[in-house]
Amino acid sequence: xxxxxxxxxxxxxxxxxxxxxxxxxxxxxxxxxxxxxxxxxxxxxxxxxxxxxxxxxxxxxxxxxxxxxxxxxxxxxxxxxxxxxxxxxxxxxxxxxxxxxxxxxxx
Length: 107
Fold this sequence. Notes:
It contains four helices and two strands; from the N terminus they run H-E-E-H-H-H. By secondary structure, the chain is mainly alpha-helical. Helix 3 packs antiparallel against helix 4.
């Protein structure tokens, strides 16, 4: 899952950088023929943006799915002695059971 996110991120960055250069440098070099010829890209720039938006959408989808899979944040794990104390405090075990189990845990 993490590898997929990294690949999609790299693709998104590549798309952004490839679109950014079209402002100044067309196929004819700096200046070129100007906006009259759309720097040689024609309607391809529109498709490039569509691809970019699809990649961003898929990236967001994967991030949301990864967050759902993690579930709620886990708290710090309790030690067995803490669990034993909690059970004794709730009244689930007697004093004798608590002392016996505590002795077993400490040995």
